Give the backbone structure.
Amino acid sequence: MTLSLLGGKSAFDQPLHVGRPNIGDKRRFLQLAEEALDRRWLSNDGAILKQFEARLQELLGVRHVIAVSNATIGLELAFRAVVGNRKGEVIVPSFTFVATAHVPAWCGCTPVFADVDLTTHHISTESVERCLTDKTVAIMPVHLWGACQATPELEALAARHGVPILFDAAHAFSTSLGGKKVGHFGAAEVFSFHATKFINSGEGGAITTNDDDLAQRLRLMRNFGFAGYDKVVTLGTNAKMNEFNAAMGLTCLESLEEIIARNRVNWQAYEAQLSKLPGLSLYYYDPATEPNCQYVIVEVDAAQTGLSRDEFVEVLQSENVMARKYFYPGVHRMEPYQTLQPEAGQELPNTEILTRTVLALPTGTAVGEAEIEVIGKILEMAASNQREIKAALAAKTA
């Protein structure tokens, strides 16, 4: 095998993507879709949506599940329902997808960026405490990579200051901490069922809460504030999930255990490959969180490998392995935040490190052990031919 950057053929004919959709039983999905068509009921709390919410409620053991059209609007609804019309500061990590910060900004509040722990990549309780002021109206942590944010200390801190917590649980479906499933923490939690998530509804999300009053408000807000025909009782929007998205979600849930098992097998296969390569450190999951292992995350130590994270990405993508730089460059370096808070990075040393070193590799049901073995060989060859790789990349950009 010769790396394509050094004159060889790409290792894979078709791209291997991070977050390529997991597809359950296609016949089951088509059966559910056909049922929706036969009923001529395609949205507005249809039968399949109700099945999907009931199954989620059963799996998570929560009192309420409110399915929504996507996780971002789910976060917006939860934020408005919990924070109300108060304006102030909301503590969020910068090491996350930009939607986490966009939600409070969209709702008229100011995101304040807290740093993360270098080992777990989760928001640091100590950093959150430093960010708390009398202007703080909420804290929005993120459960990353398919593991649970260590919440007891964070929740205790928030309780002492009387500040609500809303969790962005986009990555964390089916995970837990201390026997408590994600979905039960904070005032509410929001899951993503986007196509890139290991359980997907094509596009969609869900809000979970054990607060009866909050759940009632969220259901009203999801449907324009309607409380019956021609009766609007509150401000709302259209955040409803349709029947076809619910059908996809229900189909994926029926394959939940098989998908998690594949993720874990893939993670172990990567562990075997990366153990041979100094300077490429696999993100380890705490088994106490019952991780779903939906991401394979590697930290690159350029001093040991001779190549930077970005150079490894170039090598991998030239081989049709569409590795990603998560969460590059950090939300604090994106607009409008970079302009509004140009000095934020000075308070985020760990975030700055991780945005330069974290690499996400393909996994899921579209990837098997044979592909992972090839990816391991690509990484090994790149590290062994670092000078040639650097020269090839320099010539490519000249």
